[in-house]
Specification:
Length: 93
């Protein structure tokens, strides 16, 4: 991957959006919810607090939950990724 996050940033590949509702109704693109979970693809070295490096708690391969409107969407080599701060990640699944 050509994308290397800096500081406390994390690159996440969002999970696939649901194509069908639980009741079996096929959802059009306009009705689909933005996914709030994904897989960590890359992690920055961490942030500096009081002159000390604080290492991130997530690692490559972790499945995570993040805020609905968190991060910045980017496209690299045709793949869509989300770059979020580690503090925007709410849980590891």
């Amino acid at each position: 991957m050509k994308l290397k996050p800096l500081h406390d940033r994390v690159v996440v590949q969002a999970a696939e959006q649901e194509e069908m509702s639980k009741g079996g109704i096929i959802l059009p693109d306009t009705a689909k919810e933005k996914p709030q979970q994904g897989e960590v693809i890359a992690v920055g070295p961490g942030k500096t607090e009081n002159g000390l490096l604080v290492e991130p708690q997530v690692k490559k391969g972790d499945k995570v939950l993040y805020g609905k409107y968190s991060g910045t969407e980017v496209t690299v080599d045709g793949q869509e990724y989300l770059i979020v701060r580690e503090s925007d990640i709410m849980a590891i699944l």
